[in-house]
Amino acid sequence: MIHIITDSACDLNQAIIEKYNITMIPINVYSGEQEYKDKETIMPQELYQRMVEGEFFKTAQIAPAVFEKHFETYAQKGQPCIYIGFSSGISSTFDSAVLAQKMVKEKYPEAVVEVYDSLLTCGMLGMAVQEAAQMAHRGADMKEIVEQLDYFKQKGQHVFTVDNIEYLFKGGRVSRTSAFVGDLLNIKPILDMHEGKLRTLEKIRGRKKAITKLVTHIKERGGDFSEKVIHVGHSNDQESLDFLLKKINEELQPKEIVTEYLGSAVGAHTGPGILSVFFLGK
After folding, report:
1. Is the sign of the CA dihedral 222, 225, 230, 236 positive or negative?
2. Which domain covers residue 96, as residue numbers?
């Protein structure tokens, strides 16, 4: 059976990870010189609370040696594996995986070690990884799994809004001027992922107006949601989350809504108050 490997930018809950024996490699998170492992030595709830209190976090890619160790484990056993990675458009982690694959293939030429750039993140990456793991457990081969991942890459939608644009500035996503004006005018940007990279769609004044507009974008992209699952990634703003869920149920009436804390890998750059929605488009 093919073994599925991913990283902690994939916001799958622990029950799914354990059920399908998925290996999830933590992304490095830093506060000053202090290093943490996402979802191992720092949990999202703690990260957001500390950010509210004024602490600043940054992240760093997973080192090639870490991937090499995991890939080599399965190469030695003769078990095929595939790493389904965080989008290369916003992280260099995938480059580390490619380098590690090359090193392992030099030692074990016959090993089946694949790396796949999902161009996805968070809940959408989680949906793709879960589907791949279910397929692996049903006995699907590598070609079938990659074809399904291609489908998720093509159809996967990420739309989100942040409460404080300052964190996007600190993470290098917006200019100092945009951050200043945004704060002054209470601007709440709506962003998405396009070809694996972040893109600003609109700038809306006011939190509730931005959330309402967010749902409009989702409806336009998703069409009929009666048989679709929507994943919502959130942080520490329960009132805004409740408002978003109410709007989604009223406007979209999806088959199911799954809510998860948005992990530290992305949350460190977007800050407290993020609301992120993931679904398969039309």
Report:
1. positive
2. 3-154
Nearby residues of 218 by Cβ (< 8 Å), 6 or more positions away: 157, 159, 230, 248, 252, 277, 279
149 and 175 belong to one structural domain? no
pLDDT confidence of residue 270: 85
**Looking up tokens 């972040």, which residue turns up?**
198
Strand order in the sheet with 28-31: 34-37, 28-31, 58-60
**CATH number for the domain that contains residue 41:** 3.40.50.10170
3-class SS of residue 103: helix
Tokens of 15: 């029950």
Q: What is the dihedral of CA 199, 205, 208, 211, to 10 degrees?
A: -10
- Its pTM surpasses 0.85: yes
Res. 179: pLDDT tops 80: no
Query: What residue ranges in the chain does DSSP mark as E strands?
Result: 3-7, 23-25, 28-31, 34-37, 58-60, 81-86, 113-120, 156-161, 187-194, 197-205, 229-234, 256-261, 275-280
Q: Does 88 share its domain with 224?
A: no
CA 83/CA 282 separation, integer angstroms? 27
Count of structural domains, the chain: 2
Which residue in this structure is represented by tokens 């809504």?
Answer: 257
